[in-house]
Amino acid sequence: MELTKTQIEKVEYYLYNKYFDAIDLKAEVLDHIISDIENRMQENWSFEDAFVMTTIRWEKHFRETSSLFLGFHYSESKILVKKAVKLFKPFYFLYLAAYFLPFIFLKLVPVIIAKGTVDFINGFLLSSSLIMLSYMFFIIVKTYLSQVKTTYRFILKTQYLGLILLIMGLAVGVFDQKGLLNPVFTGFVFGGYAVVFICHHFYKKHIEAIEKYKIS
Predict the structure, then answer these.
(1) CA 153 to CA 87: how far, in whole Å?
(2) What does the longest C-alpha to C-alpha distance in the chain come to?
(3) Element (H or E) spanning 72, and its range?
(4) Tens of pLDDT, residues 89-135
(5) What is the pTM of this model?
(6) Distance separating alpha carbons of residues 95 and 82, to the nearest angstrom
(7) How many whole angstroms separate alpha carbon 106 and alpha carbon 120?
(8) Is residue 178 classed as helix, strand or coil in its secondary structure?
(9) How far apart (Å, rounded) are the C-alpha atoms in residues 25 and 158?
(10) CB 3.0-4.6 Å disulfide test: which of 48, 87, 190, 192 passes with 165?
(11) Could you give the CA distance from residue 73 to residue 96 in angstroms, rounded to a whole number?
């Protein structure tokens, strides 16, 4: 038994009251809730009773929660966080590897660079990092101004603080006075680069979701 237009609008209003407006999930969740109601109505439930029982079942999915992978200080509905963690988990390990692999390598194999080369590397790191920070500023402004919510936008918001690693690495410098690469701050720089790559990936996904659902 299919729901009428008025009944579907009631389900949509339920989602609206839950402030559930992530465009990449909303249509999918709406379909699931409608399907659950229709299945109950097939068993001779009235729409009102089926609606009440289904929404009670779905309440747990809309409770605010957070995740270790994305940071406990960032919270959203459970269903959105669950998808965000699934999407982000591989990048979480990429981020850790970007920091710890250079750190461990330089701890085991100290690397000393000649002064002329140090100046060149420092110049390269500074210029490339400024470009990356400018690009990140672009991403932050564009996602903020659009106000369109997606799972990818939520992931992006959780990653912005990671840029502190890149800034700290550059501010302190990856070389000491003898030209020895500092494991900690070199790891910071590589970790910061990983953050930029991760944000670039999820910004592209965010834009793709907006285009898919034709939201400007």
Answers:
(1) 12
(2) 82
(3) strand 71-77
(4) 999 999 999 999 999 999 999 989 988 898 888 889 889 989 999 99
(5) 0.88
(6) 19
(7) 20
(8) coil
(9) 19
(10) 192
(11) 19
